Amino acid sequence: MSSVDSQQRVLSGMRPTGKLHLGHYHGVLKNWVKLQHEFECFFFVADWHALTTHYEDPSVIKESVWDMVIDWLASGVNPGSATLFIQSRVPEHAELHLLLSMITPLGWLERVPTYKDQIEKLREKDLATYGFLGYPLLQSADILTYRAGRVPVGADQVSHIEITRELARRFNHIYGREPGFEEQAESAIVKMGKKNAKLYRSLKRRYQEEGDMEALDTARALLKEQQNISLGDRERLYGYIEGGGKVILPEPKALLTPESKLPGLDGQKMSKSYNNTIGLREDPDSVAAKVRKMPTDPQRVRRTDPGEPEKCPVWGLHKAYSDNEVQEWVQSGCRSAGIGCLDCKKPVIDAIVEEQRPLHERAREYEGNPDLVRSIIDEGCEQARDAARGTLEEVRAVMGLQYR
Ligand code: TRP
Ligand code: SF4
């Protein structure tokens, strides 16, 4: 915790393995844009993560990194509000990954549900590697490097946050118990002054004896506002409330990102592997061509055949983009054969193009100025490293590596 307010800090990453599409925009990026105003956000390009599955042909990583950053910026992720960086430019992630590996039971990694799933799913790749097994641990290191309290992820990633929590607990348990911990914690309590000391003790008792979560929160808030105690003491007292040692690595919580409601061109979830995507920065003509080619209700062979929107992927897009009035026009026009499918697709095309207009505008500025993008990332990497260094210094120290 140190000087970091973990509850205010958000970290998330994205793998650079291809172009982003509107599914990413509706699912992940709009959420990031919202979070950047509410929290201290760190967003990074997870290039090492991409290597765990693309080590044989890493060219896609290199090709995707800058495009992805431009996609973020185009979506409204603002480098003035959030810190944007590239994982491999902050070597502290790798160091923490290594150090955490010392205390990570193999069984924890083997039991992560995505491990066996992915090996099955990506059978054309040989994923029987050390790097792939360790990928959730690398993710834990990403999060714990910044002591981020909140991690926006999709449902498929929740087990990785869970393992991160377990690792943080294990780490604090092993390394947070310095000799004389209790004595130091007790004397830190005294330093808060009589009134606060008494309050802290009673909250600690209420939490430990009655499991009162509110008391836990209040005690944490009390510690946060103390001016008279050192950072080390504050960490001791955070851990001491719960009856543990010092909290060196705080446990993060998953901020579940709701699934994007935007279906792909065939009505399934929008995904590169289904080949049904609309690019985040796709040009308007190409958007129009793709939507015009979309399959419709197979019963509507001729213009005069009535159709059923529920059986048509275009209706899925209307649900995402159209207001009630247009939706009613589609429903009745389709079922009565009053409108043709191309008429029906027109408002969808217009809505997508309209949505993308500001994205294109922002992107143009960056596409024409690669140096600007690079300098945004340079600065983000610097800021990220500053944050990462503090954690690693402390981790090295408690692990007995402080002799440099
Ligand atoms: N593993 C995530 C994914 O595949 C990306 C990721 C890497 C990440 N490190 C992270 C997400 C840390 C959140 C926090 O989508
Ligand atoms: Fe689909 Fe619209 Fe054609 Fe009906 S009119 S089948 S909803 S595209």
Ranges where pLDDT stays below 50 over 5 or more residues in a row are: none
Under CATH at level 1, the class of the largest domain stands as Alpha Beta
Bound molecules: tryptophan, iron/sulfur cluster
Query: Can you list the strand order of the major beta sheet?
Result: 1-2-3
For the record, the count of structural domains works out to: 3
Give a quick account of the main beta sheet: strands, pairing sense, barrel closure: 3 strands, parallel
**What is the helix content?**
55-70%
The name of the CATH topology of the largest domain is Rossmann fold
Distance between the termini: 24 Å
What CATH architecture of the largest domain would you give? 3-Layer(aba) Sandwich
Q: Rough shape? A: elongated
The CATH superfamily of the largest domain is identified as HUPs
Q: How are the elements arranged and paired?
A:
Layout: E1 9-14, H1 22-38, E2 40-45, H2 47-54, H3 59-75, E3 82-86, H4 92-101, H5 106-110, H6 113-121, H7 130-133, H8 135-145, E4 150-153, H9 158-175, H10 181-191, H11 194-210, H12 213-224, H13 231-241, E5 253-256, H14 284-292, H15 313-321, H16 324-335, H17 341-367, H18 370-398
Helix pairs in contact: 3-17, 4-8, 4-18, 8-9, 10-13, 11-12, 12-13, 14-17, 15-17
The structure holds tryptophan and iron/sulfur cluster (SF4).
